[in-house]
Design goal:
The complex is a heterodimer of chains A (804) and B (508). By secondary structure, chain A is an all-alpha fold. Chain A has five domains: 138 residues, no CATH class; 166 residues, no CATH class; 214 residues, no CATH class; 40 residues; 190 residues, no CATH class. Chain A is built from 36 helices and six strands. The longest helix of chain A is centred in the middle third of the chain and has 21 residues. Chain B has 508 residues and is an alpha/beta fold. In chain B, helix 9 packs antiparallel against helix 10. The chains are: A mainly alpha (804), B alpha/beta (508). At the A-B interface, helix 1, helix 2, helix 28, strand 5 and helix 31 of A face helix 1, helix 2, helix 7, helix 9 and helix 10 of B.
């Protein structure tokens, strides 16, 4: 192994990942002859095989960035590469031997060799061979896949006619057949309902729901289940978990003192939007420009809070001009990652090195946000900002959409109950109405002001006033926004451009988004890098399927539920995740999808699962953020002002994870241990770690300890005999009965625990004191404490929080 | 990727999913961390973490896989270090808030001369300014005397009497520059090489590259000290793993109370029952693995083992009862008080136990006013313990392979902030300030670089933060050019994209 391979995993990884898969497998295989044969058969594809090599190794000096361009040569532009340079061309189609390009990458002379040794990016022999073959084959050149709008493709023919349920399956199956692979069989019903419940509502199914589905012998039982879950109000919560990561939603400002800010009604808006299946183009417009729309309403204003989600500083001595530049860059990074699947942020200091975005594009995109009245905190004395919540005007006082809907519900219920003997219930509802009305929340919104002057900042230097003044515009290589009478483009124009399928990049946006809906259902996208479709990202493994999904998304009218539904109904989705070792070895990342994937559920859902299984979960939708138990001193590094965390002391304690107060600098340690992001920047895919800190959290965090002992109460009440109780408990957590071996392990734990508490009844009492929940005197605490350990072991099982 | 995994695939089975799910940031095919997915890596990992796991699940599992005796430590990247390392571990003493270089190591007679006079506009023109924006700029002379100490006569102010004793151990960088003038981004820049959130901090980088010599404790530990008035807020971003796998992130140790979040067993659960619970979880995960062949479950079994061991190793670590009185006196430490002194002693204990990167924060150095009073307080809290740490490491023969770094996120202005006299302070300053390094591979008793006569601009042998990082990596045996990870389309480096150099003058 040479050194390069060790330190630049990518440069070798690229070869396998971007080459056509047969090639990948032959690298894996020890059968070299087969490998050679395959290489020879497959014509080199520019976007799949060549562009990634050029991008990673050459564009740095021969790419879009004019400032760092060497030898006046661009290898990202076909004409330039083929240009006659007085008797020779860098690339001569069909003739690798005559191409300067090839002689330079093959040169034995270090002074001639490309890429130059000092940039530490040597090409592998295979890469060199591919490049040469590409030239010999005539230099096929095409636009980067990410900028070619998706089109409808012919649904492929397959030989295994029984397997496909819908068109998705034919794309997948035709590829599998080409590879000589079989799809996995359909997962059993227990697995299916667990998978669907985690994916669509972010909660495990109850044993009753499992039994109903398993026993449902109607032919459309599965479809009914999908539709029930899509109609659940928890669907919006599950989707919000993802969306809030993308837009970096948090309850605090992020920098320095990390003071709290008012924004939770925006979260309610997002949940509601997914629940009511708001078309994604509207969803986009309301967030980017809800304050400017003709039909602007309270709710679109709340949605416009998107523009305020960035990190802000409330530190003394912050220079307004510097933070103007920082905020603008933050917004450009976010909008480009969320909607364009692009890293335009890289063009802050220079033209993008790998994609055709220029530094000017960066600043013109930023200029769309120059009208945001968002600087009050930058000219408020720091001591006045050291309040909780801090000053983040403009804000409005609102009831969130979910609160207003709840009011209507309560009023309806009261009307229905009137005259009935259920006075108590009427009173309850009346009280709820009063409570809601009494406490409207503040929320940050977008508000227009006179647009600030935006200059192109040379090298990103905010002190440099010499750059060109620019107005709002979209990246020039993509298209432009037609404007009558020199009108200044607005955030509405930007939102329209992002979703317009004719004059804008709506078709590209659709592809970026469907890839993410797909990733939620399979654990990875068809294109694996969810926020970078650029030259340094990964081309899709099933490009035609991705295109087709994008087209369907558009033709459905940006109907998110419809897309989730069609994916959920596919046979591809329904496959078992259990695969023979052979297949796991051959396709370790499950790119071909000859099986389903398995992965731990998101941090919030880890919490929700324990609460749901124990019976503690308070599953009402929406409202202000909540504060679960948190280790003392977790905020001790915060200051301006110093902070004491006070956890909720009522049933708010047991709300779902997505409502947990999101302190950017010190996110709740449970969420952090399970890889929830701090939301300082856009997160399109979370890592999934498996660490000792996560184990300690599940074992010892009071939330899980309290859930365990409450789960024990449920177990004792739910079944009589010891073995029935084991089964009952296991079914709640894993949706299945334990095997004999499993029951034996639990029995041993139960007996040892019971023996201990029988001789230490005081300890049993102690074991019931973690958390708010009270245990009645009538309960046998020794028994309960013993079962609480069994319950805790069950909640700690890998299977309990594994979606497969 | 690949490369290790796939190349060995001819002879050994692949277990890719264990790390795919376990570690990666979903980049999968282009997963930069898939070298961790090698069979060998998994074996070492399981093998080493298998110690102490009851009789059943794991031992059976290990036997089945033909594992041999346990091994200490977590391996780093294959091929690292690039060359012989001079230091095995780092203790980074962060004086958060930004200590005044002009009152510690950088003596400027010119300022004394001009004390109270207007600052020459030529010096400050076009420079970024923090809280002094729009204010009249007047010179504030050094408020204490300086002396020359050690063999080569290092310049040290009277604020730091104990530093005289280690003058021959430290290499003072007097020409530091940074790019960020506000605390939060300046810390982020110092720790990650970028002011943009989401990048990996140096402790995470070093653990990622070199692994760790212990499995009983995290490889990157952060200690913060109870300090004086208005302590600087410090975000957990400062010890984030960023785009690296999250197991490389720093773990905060609480200086008082429970040392690590959730390390304490629940009320009413004695250790042996806790062990029983952990063992049951491991056995059940193992049984499940037999049914569904999910290697993630094996990783989990190992994680539970480490978790259980941390429940023992952490209390043992913070139990200072075995430290003799003369050592406590050397530091001036009262165990459990959360002071900087106690943390310095704890840092030594962590270093002894094989922790790779220890970062220790004292948060009291933002002296916009009452410079004399505040410097007195902060120096009193930190000067002697810092000396004690160096001395103690030296006595134990550990200074030779421990790199100690001292400094803030920036320095302070030669201009006065606030009124004259006792209430005068200094504002944030980024164009020139001082830091020092000592220990493994560092040339002690010298200083590198210089600022101009106003202590404003670094003018000689300028050392920017990237150079500091490059030098630290170099001492750890890493060539910063060749230490990168692909993220968002770039090859990310701790030293970033702009040029960075090893400060050769500082090397022994």
């Amino acid at each position: 192994m040479n050194e390069k391979k060790r330190f630049f995993p990518r440069s070798t990884g690229r070869l396998e990942s971007r080459l056509y898969l047969p090639l990948l497998f032959c690298v894996l295989s020890s059968n070299a002859a087969w490998c050679e044969e395959d290489l020879a058969q497959e014509k080199v594809d520019f976007n799949r095989d060549i562009r990634p090599i050029l991008s990673d190794n050459c564009f740095q000096c021969h790419g879009p960035d004019a400032a760092s361009r060497e030898a006046d040569l661009r290898l990202d532009v076909e004409e330039d590469a083929k240009l006659d340079r007085g008797g020779y061309s860098v690339i001569t189609p069909g003739k690798s031997a005559e191409s300067e390009f090839v002689s330079r990458i093959r040169s034995a002379d270090e002074r001639e060799l490309m890429p130059p040794p000092e940039i530490h990016k040597p090409l592998s022999p295979r890469e060199i061979e591919l490049l040469a073959r590409w030239i010999d084959e005539g230099v096929d050149w095409s636009m980067a896949w990410a900028y070619v709008p998706p089109v409808r493709h012919a649904i492929p023919e397959v030989s295994h006619h029984e397997w496909p349920t819908n068109w998705i399956d034919r794309f997948i199956l035709s590829r599998l057949e080409k590879e000589g692979l079989q799809p996995a069989g359909e997962a059993d019903r227990v697995t299916l309902i667990r998978r669907l419940s985690f994916d669509l509502v972010g909660l495990p199914p109850t044993p009753e729901e499992v039994a109903q589905f398993v026993d449902d012998d109607r032919p459309d039982a599965y479809e009914r289940l999908v539709d029930r879950l899509l109609a659940s109000p928890h669907f919006g919560e599950r989707m919000a978990i993802y969306w809030l990561d993308l837009v970096r939603y948090a309850d605090t400002v992020g920098y320095h003192g990390d003071q709290t800010q008012n924004i939770w009604p925006y979260r309610d808006y997002v949940i509601h939007a997914f629940n009511t299946n708001k078309p994604f183009d509207e969803f986009t417009k309301e967030q980017l420009a809800g304050d400017l729309l003709d039909n602007s309403s309270i709710d679109t204003q709340i949605a416009s809070g998107y523009n305020r989600l960035l990190q802000t500083t409330h530190e003394g001595g912050a220079q307004r001009k510097e933070y103007r530049a920082i905020y603008m860059a933050d917004r450009v990074r976010n909008i480009s990652q969320v909607w364009m699947g692009a890293t335009v942020g890289c063009a802050q200091c220079h033209d993008h090195k790998f994609d055709p975005y220029t530094a000017r594009d960066f600043y013109t995109l930023g200029a769309f946000f120059a009208d945001l009245d968002d600087e009050i905190h930058l000219h408020t004395p720091a001591e006045d900002l050291s309040t909780l919540p801090t000053i983040r005007k403009p804000e409005i006082e609102v009831l969130s959409i979910l609160q207003r809907e709840r009011l209507v519900q309560c009023e309806d219920e009261i009307r229905k109950l009137e005259g009935s003997p259920e006075d108590a219930k009427v009173e309850q509802r009346k009280k709820e109405i009063e409570t809601i009305k009494a406490a409207p929340g503040l929320t940050m919104i977008a508000k227009q002001c006179e647009p600030r002057v935006v200059r192109v900042l040379s090298r990103g230097d905010w002190m440099d006033d010499s750059g060109e003044v620019v107005g709002p515009a979209v990246p020039t290589f993509l298209s432009s926004i037609p404007l009558a009478d020199g009108r200044r483009a607005t955030r509405i124009d930007l939102a329209n451009w992002l979703t317009d399928t004719d004059d804008g990049v709506g078709r590209l946006t659709a592809r970026v988004m469907v890839n993410r809906w797909w990733a939620l259902m399979f654990g990875r996208g068809i294109a694996s890098v969810l926020d970078d479709f650029g030259g340094q990202g990964q081309p899709p493994v099933h490009p035609e399927l991705l295109d087709q999904l994008a087209v369907e998304f558009l033709e459905s009218g940006w109907d998110v539920k419809q897309m989730v539904r069609v994916i959920a109904l596919s046979s591809t989705y329904r496959q078992s995740s259990i695969a023979p070792k052979e297949l796991r070895d051959r396709d370790p990342y499950n790119e071909l999808l000859a099986r389903q994937s398995r992965f731990r559920v998101p941090a919030e859902v880890v919490r929700d699962t324990a609460l749901r299984v124990s019976g503690l979960l308070q599953d009402e939708i929406g409202g202000p953020s909540v504060k679960p138990y948190q280790p003392a001193g977790h905020y001790r590094h915060l200051n301006f002002p110093a902070r004491e965390y006070e956890h909720d002391t009522n049933e708010q304690q047991w709300r779902r994870g997505l409502y947990v107060h999101w302190q950017r600098q010190f996110l709740h340690p449970m969420l952090r241990a399970f890889d929830a992001p701090t939301r300082e920047e856009c997160t399109a895919s979370r890592s999934r770690s498996n660490t000792a800190l996560a184990a300690l959290t599940l074992l010892n965090d009071p939330t899980f300890v309290e859930a365990s002992r409450t789960f024990a109460e449920r177990i004792l009440a739910g079944a009589e005999s010891q073995s029935e109780r084991m089964e009952y408990a296991f079914r709640w957590a894993t949706s299945r009965a334990p095997t004999e071996d499993e029951a034996r392990v639990l029995k041993e734990l139960l007996e040892k625990s019971r023996a201990y508490y029988e001789s230490h009844p005081e300890e049993a009492k102690q074991a019931m004191t973690t958390g708010l929940r009270k245990v009645g005197d009538e309960v046998d605490q020794v028994d309960l404490a013993a079962w609480a350990n069994v319950a805790r072991a069950i909640l700690n099982l890998g299977e309990t929080t594994m979606r497969n | 990727m690949v490369s290790p995994t796939r190349q060995s695939s001819g002879t050994q089975p692949n277990f890719p999913e264990i790390w795919q799910v376990g570690l990666s940031r979903e980049k999968t095919m282009n997963n930069p961390f898939s070298h961790l997915q090698t069979d060998a890596h998994r074996r070492t990992f399981l093998k080493a973490s298998g110690v102490g796991l009851g009789a059943t699940a794991l031992s059976a599992l290990l036997a089945g896989d033909g594992f041999a005796a346990p091994q200490q430590g977590i391996p780093g990247l294959p091929g690292l270090p690039h060359f012989a390392a001079r230091a095995k571990r780092v203790i980074f003493l962060c004086m958060a808030g930004g200590p005044s270089h002009l009152d510690t190591f950088d003596e400027k007679p010119k300022l004394r001369e001009l004390d109270g006079q207007p600052m020459p506009a030529s010096v400050t023109a076009g420079q970024p300014i923090a809280q002094l924006q729009g204010k009249e700029l007047r010179v504030l002379g050094p408020i204490r005397k300086f002396g020359k100490y050690g063999k080569n006569g290092q310049t040290i102010s009277d604020f730091l009497p104990w530093h005289r004793e280690i003058a021959d151990d430290i290499c003072i960088f007097k020409s530091m520059v940074t790019e960020q003038i506000n605390h939060d981004p300046a810390h982020t820049f110092m720790n990650t090489g970028s002011a943009i959130s989401g990048r990996a901090s140096m402790g995470a980088w070093i653990n990622y590259g070199l692994g760790c010599e212990t499995r009983d404790l995290p490889g990157f530990i952060v200690l913060t000290s109870v300090s004086s008035a208005n302590p600087q807020p410090i975000a957990s971003r400062q010890w984030s793993a960023g785009f690296l796998p999250s197991r490389y992130q720093g773990v905060q140790f609480n200086s008082t109370g429970v040392p690590v979040h959730y390390v304490k067993t629940p009320r009413g659960v004695p250790d042996r029952l806790q062990h029983q619970v952990v063992g049951s979880v491991q056995q059940l995960d193992q049984l499940r693995h037999q049914q569904v062949a999910n290697p993630e479950l094996l990783t989990r079994i190992a994680a539970y083992e480490t978790a259980f061991r941390m429940q023992t190793s952490v209390p043992e670590l913070i139990d200072m009862s075995g430290e003799p009185q003369h050592v406590l006196d050397l530091y001036g430490a009262t165990p459990g008080d959360g002071s900087y002194a106690s943390n310095c002693l704890l840092a030594r204990r962590l270093a002894e136990r094989g922790v790779r990167f220890i970062q220790l924060y004292h948060r009291g150095w933002d002296h916009h006013g009452s410079l004399n009073k505040n410097m007195t307080t902060c120096c009193k809290l930190t000067d002697k313990p810092t000396y004690a740490l160096i001395t103690d490491l030296k006595q134990r023969g550990m200074l030779d392979d421990t790199l100690v770094v001292w400094g803030g996120e920036f320095g302070r202005t030669p201009m006065s902030q606030g009124d004259k006299g006792e209430t005068a302070g200094r504002d944030h300053h980024i164009a020139g300030f001082s830091m020092w390094m000592a220990g493994g591979g560092v040339q002690g008793g010298i200083s590198v670089g210089a600022t101009d006569e106003f202590g404003y601009h670094a003018v000689e042998d300028i050392v920017n933060v990237r150079d500091l990082h490059a030098t630290m990596l170099h001492l750890m045996g890493i060539d910063h050019h060749r230490f990168s990870v692909p993220f968002q389309g770039l090859d990310m480096r701790l030293t970033g994209v702009k040029p960075a150099k090893v400060v050769r003058e500082s090397l022994a």
